[in-house]
Amino acid sequence: MTKNTTRKVAVLITCFNRKDKTINFLDSLINQQAFAELNSDIYLLDDASTDGTAQAVKYKYPQVSIITGTGHLFWAGGMRTIWQYAISKGEYTLFLLFNDDVVLMDDAIERLMICYNQRNAEGTLLVGSTLSPITNELSYGGHALYKPDRAAYYMLKPDKVKAIPCQLGNANIFLVDALTVRRIGIFSAAFTHYLADFDYTLSAHKGGIDVLVAPGYYGYCEDDHGVNWLSGKYSLKKRINYLYNVKGLAYKEYLYYIKKHFPADYFGAFTKLWLKTLFPVIWDKFKKQ
Fold first, then answer.
1. Domain boundary at 220, 250, 265, which?
2. Closest of 134, 155, 137 to residue 146, by C-alpha
3. Same structural domain for residues 240 and 116?
4. What 8-state DSSP symbol labels residue 264?
5. Closest C-alpha to 42, from 112, 89, 111
6. Domains contained in the chain, number
């Protein structure tokens, strides 16, 4: 028996009203030969979708365990809930986390498992990079800090043949092993939507886990976040609502993240959030992120 068949793997996904994308992702995962060879369970958190996602998944892939959310879990809450549920169902060696808007490359699972097997050591978190299906440019993956005590970072282009270290990662494609979960836990309850993956990878890095960008690319996923401020054409009331909204600037959660990991940047982060809100013309004019 190979390592891949003896390990028990939990696949974790959360979704909300993206039926076609969710099905497309599952198609790209389940139809892979390397995935069929895994001893795996698939867990999907459907956050009370109204577009028939759960029914469509159940019809096409009855082997998927579907858990219904409250409708207010958002991304981080959904992933945390499904992760907790999977842990309650059994002992897993590996956890594979995916965004449901990813379309995996045909050999993604095979290459991801090869990369992990080559590590031959527990305490590893692999980040899989994705390409934009429109531009074919890097869209999500791993990031490195410019300075260890500062929040600024830059995106890492994956090496073609070897895994490279990173401090931050987008959880569009994650491989997390059991030792990492025992040491770090799962996504923090402090985050509702954004930042849970950055907090997790940074906490893992600080906790002695090898956080690595796996070599090459593993799927396609469009970066649909857009700009991270609300234009001055909107009223002040709407901009303040956006400041506090967990799908906007997530004011409280972002400042918690900064205070936890980069306390020297706290005042600057606080000031920048309010400048974006009160004087968005600066960003509107210069298109700063």
1. 220
2. 155
3. no
4. G
5. 89
6. 2
In this predicted structure, what is the pLDDT of residue 143? Answer: 99
Residue 113 is which amino acid?
Answer: M
Tell me, what DSSP letter sits at residue 138?
Answer: E
- The domain containing residue 181 runs over which residues? 3-220
Other Cβ atoms within 10 Å of 241 Cβ, number: 14
**Helix%, strand%, coil% for the chain, nearest 5:** 40, 25, 35
Please give the structure tokens belonging to residue 280.
């968005």
Cα 40 to Cα 34, 68, 86, 196, distances in angstroms:
11, 20, 11, 24
Residues 240 and 274 in one domain: yes
Q: Is residue 32 part of a domain?
A: yes
- Collect the ranges in the chain with pLDDT lower than 50: 1, 289
Residue 2 has what pLDDT? 61
Give the model confidence (pLDDT) of 5-24 as tens digits: 678 999 999 999 999 999 99
Q: Are residues 169 and 281 in the same domain?
A: no
CA–CA gap between residue 124 and residue 274 (Å, rounded): 38
What CATH number should be reported for the domain holding residue 210? Answer: 3.90.550.60
Is residue 226 included in any domain, yes or no?
no
Q: What is the pLDDT of residue 284?
A: 75
Please tell me whether residues 190 and 276 are part of one structural domain. no
Q: Are residues 56 and 148 in the same domain?
A: yes
pLDDT for residue 279: 87
Q: What is the biggest distance separating any 2 CA atoms in the chain, rounded to whole angstroms?
A: 63
pLDDT of residue 287: 67
- Rounded Cα distance between 179 and 195, Å, is 22
Report angle CA 186, 79, 216 to the nearest 5 degrees. 85
pLDDT value of position 289: 47
Q: Where is the domain boundary, 196, 220, 244?
A: 220
| CB-neighbour burial class of residue 96 (10 A; exposed 0-12, middle 13-18, buried 19+) | buried
